[in-house]
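Suppose you are handed a protein chain with no further information: no name, no annotation, nothing but its sequence. What can you learn? This example shows the usual starting point.
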Amino acid sequence: MSTEPFETSAQPGVAERALDTATDVSRTLGEVTGALRAAVDRLSATVQEAQRPGNTLSTVAAITREAPLASLFIAFLFGIAVARRL
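A reasonable first move is to predict its three-dimensional structure. Written in structure tokens, the prediction is:
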């Protein structure tokens, strides 16, 4: 028997490929999480702006508190109208 040194292949092994994949997935999840966090922050700021007195959302909220059944009926009709267009 000859004692030749163990030859390593130039291609990465299964473990190295799995680690690379896990690193890529982790990086991608981090980017998606950051983008989602930024979108939620923008949406929260928009909702807070709309809830200020005199703005659209505060007006709708006030009308809904005063006439909840009428508001529900209008929302139902609006839903039907939107569904028919799709």
